[in-house]
Design a protein that fits this description.
- This protein is α+β, with helices and mostly antiparallel strands.
- It has one domain.
- Helix content is 16%, strand content 32%.
- The protein contains two helices and 14 strands; from the N terminus they run αββββββββββββββα.
- Strand 12 and strand 13 form a beta hairpin.
- The longest helix is centred in the last third of the chain and has 23 residues.
- It starts with a helix and ends with a helix.
Length: 231
Amino acid sequence: MLVLGTLGFAISSALAVPLLQLDIAGGTYETSTETVIASQNPFTLQALFNTENGTASGTYYIAAAIIPKTENPPVTSFGSFSVNGVTYSAANMSYGNPPASITETSLDLQSHGIYDTHYVEIAFTFDTSKTGSLYNSQDNPGGLQLNPTGSLLFEDFDVDITGLAAGYQVHFDLYNIGTDKRGNETVQDFAPFSKDAQSGPTLPVPDASSTMMLLGMGMLAVEGMRRRFLR
């Protein structure tokens, strides 16, 4: 009975971790949006695959989407961001709902409040030599631990949102593409939307005049305190 109980627990634990997840190193989980949020910039986005639930084969995609939703063409510039050193802006991004290769809306990734917007698809394959211990990114954001015999595959993506305009963020989805019974391309597997990831809020970069004004105010405050002390 003990052996059966232990085996049952192991199976249920594996099933509790979905086939695909996203995570962010050093990220936090935001319960209101059910998303892992980056706590700094730049940051490392992590695509995770649970080998206890399947075998990683073929091409997978990260969809990096601008939020809030944009228009096409953009009414105002949302700026740019980079993934693994490649810069993306409206000039080299798609618009609508991924995957870009699928034209039938019902076979797309669900919009889940993110799409239609500008997005880019980043194709990759999982390296079976990069493994970690199994965990749930919702319960333990940023919890990836390297393990040569672990059942979790992972791929890292270096993200920098310095070029984004204030008020914009990048939302990330993870999926692959297969075919349905009619032979049409469709989204086959995808990370549950409660296992998505997102950059943190962007902040405007102060211009030189604002910086000088703040420095001047600081110096005046210090001088005022010095005179009061001397009195």
